[in-house]
C-alpha cells in the first residue's frame, strides 16, 4: 500500500486528500482528508472520500462508443471516432458555417484547466459564436450585474479581514461553492473561526440552512422575494445615511434616482411581502451597514434562479457599492497570485458596457451574447428552430444539459434532432444516451492539475499546488483537451493555446500544457512542484495601485432605466405575484437546494450515493404535511402550471412553511417521470423555458416556482433519506 497526495476537483472545495493506492494494480483502497493540507486542513466530503468508486465503479465508461443505426452503442477505437467526428464537423461547417457547431462547457469541464484553455483555442480556430455553458443556467445574473452596474477592479473585501458577512441564497456549507467572495476551503472551519473573532453573519434564505445556523440574523424570506427584501435593506441604509458617502461621491452615479425608486419599499411593505420580521429586517441592515465596517453581501444560486434574478443580483451588489466594501489604493493585496501572470491591481471602476445590447442576438427571444457566450436558456430552441444560424452539431464537455436545462422534454427533443452530438463524459449520462459519440475522459486522479481558475479570489493567501496523476487511467480513455487538439489537427486547424501556437503534428503532454499556462508565474513551476501538498509562498508584498487617469470618470451605474423600471413594476404589482402563474394561484413555492451526496445530475448511480440518497424527495415543512394529511415517505403529486410529477415527500423543519424544496438533476432519460423509482424526480419536466425566463439573459426560473402538492393516498415503503443527510 502506498499513500499518494492530491486534491479533489469535483467542486471548488479543492480538498487536500491522502489516497491509499495498491501500487501493483493502481487501485484506490481508501481516501482521507489531508489534515496537513495548508488550505483545507483535513476537510473532505463524502464525494471526495468515495472518489475511488467514481473512478473504478462499474458505471464508468472505459471505451469510446459510437451510436449504431439501431440506436445501440458499439465500442470504437478513439482514433476512429475522432476521424469520423472531424469529417462530419468539417462537412457541417462547410455547408452551414461555423456557428452550426456549438460547444457546451458543463460543471466538470471547469475543474480541468487544460481542457478549458484547449476548448477556448478550438473555438477560436473554428470561429463559432455558438458557445454555451452552465453559467447561463446558473448565476449569469452576476455577469449581467458586472456589465450593468460596473466592477471594482481591485475586487471586494475579503472574508478573512471582514467583520460582517451576508449570505443571500447561498449555502456554502453544503455546496462548497467558492469564487463568490466567501473562501470555500474547509468552509465550516473558516466560518467558525470568523465567528470566534467576532464576525456578524446575516443569512437570507427561505430554508434554515446549515449556513443559517451561524447567523446572527436569519431572514427566512418567501422564495423569490429577494428584490423586494434587498430593496428594503437599501432603503433603510440610504435613509439612515449608513452608506459610504465619500466612496459614493467619487465612484457612483444614480444614487438619488435609486433612492427615490426605493421609496415604496418601506419596512412594513417589505416585511409583509417577503414574509420576514420587521425588526429582523432593520437589524440586518444595521449589522451590515452601521455596525459592520468591512465585509460584503454575496449570493449563491438562490436569488439568481428566481424571477427577477438580474434585479436581485444588481441590488445585492449595490449593497456592497453604496457601503464601499472594496480594497482602496495602498491596501495590501491579500493574494497577488502565484500561478497566473502578475497584473497590477488598481483602485478604479471598470465601467459597465451592457455588452448584451450589442452584437449578435439569438434567433429566438432576441437575447444578446455575454462574455462571448450565447444563452443556454435558449440552447434547445437554437437547435430546433430551422433557418440561418441553426445549430447542427454540439460538443459537450463535462455537462449533462438534458437534466440541467429547463423544459426537459424540449431539451431531449433538441439532443435527438442534432446531426452530431459528441459527449466527453465518463458515464452514460441522460445526455450521452442521445450522443452519436461518447468519448470517456481521464478522471481527476488520472491527470495532473493545478488550481488555476480564480486563484486570486479562491485562495486567501498566495497558495499554489501541482498534483501529479496519482493513478494510471484505463486504456481506452483520453484527456479532455486531447479531443479538441485531435479534432483540430484532423480538421487542418492551427491551435493557439493560451497564446502559444501548438505543434499540430505531435500532441503535447498535459504537463507541457500546464507549463504553458504558468509560464509567467511569480514562482517557477519547478519550485511549485517541489511541494506536493501545495504551499503558501512568501511573495513581495503588493499594494493596490491608484486608478488610471483615464478611468477617473468611470462610475458604478446604480440607476439604469431598466433597473428603475423593474423596481417600479414590483412596487405596483400584486405582492403575491410569485405564487401565481397562468392566471392561477398556487399554495406553495418550490425552490432548489443541493445535497452533499451528489453534484447536480452526477454520481447518483453510485453505491455510496444510493445508500445515502436513493431518490430526491420533496422536502416540506412538517406543519404543511400535517395539514395536507401527508406522512414521511408518502407519495404525492407535485403540480405546476406546466405539468405534474409523482414525488415522495419528506418532512424537513428547516423549510419555510409555504415553501417546498427539492434537488435538481434527477430522473432518467426515458419517459419515466416517477419520483418513487430509483432514478428520482426530473424536476425540470415541470419548469418551462421561453416566456418564463429573464428578459436579458433568458435565465430560467428554477426557483420560487408556484406549485401545489396533492396527496396521492399511498405510502412508499422503500428507504428515503432523512431531511438532514
Ligand atoms: N454537494 C454539492 N455541491 C455542489 C453542487 C451540488 O449539486 N452538490 N452543485 C454545484 C453548483 S453547479 C453550484 S452552482 C453551486 C451552488 O451553490 P449554492 O448556491 O450555495 O447552492 P445551494 O446549496 O442550493 O444554496 C442555494 C440556497 O438558496 C436558497 N434559495 C432558494 N430559493 C431562494 C430564493 O428565492 N431566495 C433566496 N434568498 N434563497 C433561495 C436555497 O434554500 C438554498 O439554501 O453548488 C455547487 N456545489
Ligand atoms: N431545476 C434546477 N435546474 C438546474 C439547477 C437548479 O438548481 N435547479 N442548477 C443549474 C446549475 S447551477 C447548473 S451548474 C447546471 C448543471 O449542469 P451540468 O453541468 O450540465 O450538469 P452536471 O451534472 O454538473 O454535469 C456534469 C457531467 O460531467 C460528467 N462528469 C463527471 N466526472 C467527469 C470528469 O471527470 N470529466 C468529464 N469530462 N465529465 C465528467 C457527469 O457524468 C455529468 O454528465 O444545472 C442547472 N439546472
Ligand atoms: S467538498 Fe467534497 S467534492 Fe468538493 S472538493 Fe472537497 S471532497 Fe471534493
Ligand atoms: Mo451551477
- How are the strands of the biggest sheet laid out side by side? 5-4-18-17-16-6-7
The total count of helices amounts to 23
Based on the structure given, which CATH architecture of the largest domain is correct? 3-Layer(aba) Sandwich
Instruction: State the share of residues found in helices, binned by percent.
Output: 25-40%
- Total DSSP E strands: 32
What separation lies between the terminal Cα atoms?
A: 32 Å
- What's the overall geometry? globular
Runs in which pLDDT lies below 50 for 5 or more consecutive residues are: 671-677, 717-725
CATH homologous superfamily name of the largest domain? Dimethylsulfoxide Reductase, domain 2
The major pleated sheet works out as: 7 strands, mixed
The bound ligands are: ligand MGD, iron/sulfur cluster, molybdenum atom
Structural class: alpha/beta
Strand share of the residues?
A: 15-25%
- Could you say what the CATH topology of the largest domain is called? Dimethylsulfoxide Reductase, domain 2
Number of domains: 4
Describe what you observe in this structure.
The protein has 725 residues and is α/β, with parallel strands linked by helices. It has four domains: 1-56, Phosphorylase Kinase, domain 1, CATH 3.30.200.210; 74-136 and 364-439, Rossmann fold (3-Layer(aba) Sandwich); 162-339, Dimethylsulfoxide Reductase, domain 2; 576-711, Barwin-like endoglucanases (Beta Barrel). Helix content is 28%, strand content 17%. It has 23 helices and 32 strands. The strands form ten sheets. It has a seven-stranded mixed β-sheet with strand order 5-4-18-17-16-6-7, with helices on one face. α4 links the parallel β6 (101-105) and β7 (131-133). α4 (113-126) packs parallel to α18 and α8 (226-240) runs antiparallel to α11 (267-274). It is globular and about 65 Å long. 53% of the residues are buried. Mean pLDDT is 95; it is low at 671-677 and 717-725. The chain binds ligand MGD (2 copies), iron/sulfur cluster and molybdenum atom. The site of iron/sulfur cluster has 11 residues, from α1. Residues 11, 107, 138, 168-172, 174-177, 204-207, 209, 223-224, 226, 300-303, 306, 591-596, 598-600, 661, 703-704 line the site of one ligand MGD.
Amino acid at each position: 500500500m502506498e499513500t499518494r497526495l492530491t486534491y479533489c476537483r469535483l467542486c471548488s472545495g479543492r480538498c487536500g486528500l491522502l489516497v491509499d493506492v495498491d501500487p501493483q494494480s493502481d487501485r484506490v483502497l481508501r481516501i482521507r482528508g489531508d489534515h496537513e493540507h495548508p488550505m483545507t486542513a483535513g476537510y473532505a466530503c463524502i464525494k471526495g472520500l468515495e472518489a475511488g468508486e467514481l473512478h473504478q465503479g462499474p458505471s464508468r465508461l472505459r471505451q469510446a462508443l459510437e451510436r449504431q443505426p439501431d440506436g445501440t452503442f458499439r465500442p470504437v477505437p478513439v482514433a476512429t471516432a475522432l476521424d469520423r467526428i472531424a469529417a462530419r464537423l468539417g462537412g457541417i461547417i462547410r455547408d452551414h458555417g461555423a456557428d452550426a457547431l456549438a460547444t457546451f462547457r458543463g460543471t466538470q469541464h471547469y475543474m480541468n484547466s487544460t481542457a478549458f484553455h484547449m476548448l477556448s483555442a478550438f473555438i477560436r480556430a473554428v470561429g463559432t459564436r455558438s458557445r454555451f455553458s452552465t453559467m447561463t443556467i446558473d448565476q449569469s445574473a452576476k455577469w449581467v450585474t458586472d456589465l450593468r452596474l460596473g466592477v471594482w477592479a481591485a475586487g471586494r473585501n475579503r472574508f478573512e479581514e471582514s467583520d460582517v458577512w451576508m449570505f443571500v441564497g447561498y449555502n456554502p456549507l453544503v455546496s462548497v461553492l467558492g469564487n463568490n467572495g466567501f473562501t470555500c476551503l474547509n468552509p465550516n472551519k473558516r466560518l467558525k473561526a470568523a465567528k470566534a473573532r467576532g464576525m456578524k453573519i446575516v443569512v437570507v434564505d427561505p430554508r434554515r440552512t446549515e449556513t443559517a445556523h451561524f447567523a446572527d440574523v436569519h431572514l427566512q424570506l418567501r422564495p423569490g422575494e429577494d428584490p423586494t427584501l434587498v430593496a428594503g435593506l437599501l432603503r433603510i441604509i440610504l435613509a439612515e445615511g449608513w452608506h459610504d458617502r465619500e466612496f459614493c461621491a467619487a465612484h457612483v452615479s444614480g444614487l438619488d434616482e435609486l433612492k427615490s425608486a426605493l421609496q415604496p419599499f418601506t419596512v412594513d411593505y417589505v416585511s409583509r411581502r417577503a414574509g420576514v420580521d420587521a425588526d429582523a429586517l432593520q437589524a440586518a441592515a444595521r449589522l451590515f451597514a452601521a455596525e459592520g465596517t468591512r465585509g460584503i453581501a454575496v449570493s449563491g444560486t438562490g436569488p439568481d434562479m428566481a424571477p427577477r434574478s438580474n434585479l436581485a443580483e444588481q441590488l445585492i451588489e449595490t449593497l456592497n457599492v453604496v457601503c464601499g466594501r472594496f480594497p482602496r489604493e495602498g491596501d495590501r493585496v491579500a493574494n497577488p497570485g502565484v500561478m497566473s501572470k502578475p497584473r497590477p491591481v488598481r483602485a478604479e471602476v471598470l465601467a459597465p458596457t451592457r455588452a448584451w445590447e450589442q452584437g449578435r442576438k439569438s434567433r429566438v427571444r432576441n437575447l444578446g451574447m455575454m462574455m462571448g457566450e450565447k444563452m443556454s436558456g435558449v440552447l434547445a430552441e437554437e437547435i430546433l428552430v430551422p433557418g440561418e444560424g441553426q445549430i447542427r452539431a454540439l460538443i459537450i464537455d463535462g455537462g449533462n444539459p438534458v437534466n440541467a436545462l429547463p423544459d426537459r422534454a424540449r431539451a431531449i427533443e433538441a439532443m435527438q434532432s442534432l446531426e452530431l452530438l459528441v459527449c466527453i463524459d465518463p458515464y452514460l449520462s441522460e445526455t450521452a444516451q442521445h450522443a452519436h459519440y461518447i468519448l470517456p475522459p481521464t478522471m481527476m486522479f488520472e491527470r495532473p492539475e493545478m488550481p488555476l481558475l480564480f486563484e486570486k479570489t479562491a485562495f486567501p493567501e498566495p497558495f499554489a499546488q501541482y498534483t501529479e496523476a496519482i493513478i494510471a487511467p484505463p486504456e481506452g480513455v483520453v484527456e479532455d483537451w486531447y479531443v479538441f487538439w485531435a479534432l483540430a489537427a484532423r480538421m487542418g486547424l492551427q491551435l493557439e493555446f493560451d497564446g502559444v501556437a501548438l505543434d499540430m503534428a505531435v500532441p503535447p503532454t498535459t504537463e507541457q500544457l500546464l507549463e504553458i499556462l504558468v509560464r509567467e508565474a511569480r514562482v517557477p513551476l519547478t519550485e511549485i512542484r517541489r511541494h506536493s501538498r501545495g504551499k503558501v509562498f512568501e511573495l513581495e508584498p503588493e499594494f493596490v495601485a491608484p486608478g488610471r487617469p483615464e478611468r477617473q470618470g468611470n462610475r458604478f451605474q446604480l440607476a439604469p432605466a431598466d433597473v428603475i423600471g423593474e423596481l417600479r413594476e414590483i412596487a405596483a404589482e400584486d405582492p403575491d405575484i410569485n405564487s401565481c402563474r397562468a392566471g392561477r394561484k398556487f399554495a406553495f413555492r418550490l425552490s432548489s437546494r443541493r445535497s452533499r451526496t451528489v453534484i447536480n445530475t452526477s454520481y447518483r448511480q453510485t453505491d455510496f450515493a444510493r445508500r445515502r440518497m436513493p431518490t430526491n424527495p420533496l422536502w416540506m415543512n412538517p406543519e404543511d404535511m400535517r395539514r395536507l394529511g401527508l406522512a414521511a415517505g408518502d407519495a404525492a403529486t407535485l403540480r405546476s402550471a406546466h405539468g405534474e410529477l409523482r414525488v415522495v415527500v419528506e418532512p424537513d423543519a428547516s423549510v419555510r412553511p409555504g415553501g417546498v424544496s427539492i434537488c435538481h438533476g434527477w430522473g432518467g432519460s426515458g419517459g419515466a417521470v416517477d419520483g418513487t423509482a430509483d432514478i428520482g424526480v426530473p424536476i425540470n419536466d415541470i419548469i418551462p423555458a421561453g416566456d418564463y425566463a429573464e428578459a436579458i439573459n433568458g435565465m430560467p426560473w428554477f426557483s420560487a416556482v408556484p406549485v401545489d402538492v396533492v396527496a396521492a393516498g399511498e405510502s412508499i415503503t422503500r428507504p428515503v433519506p432523512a431531511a438532514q443527510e
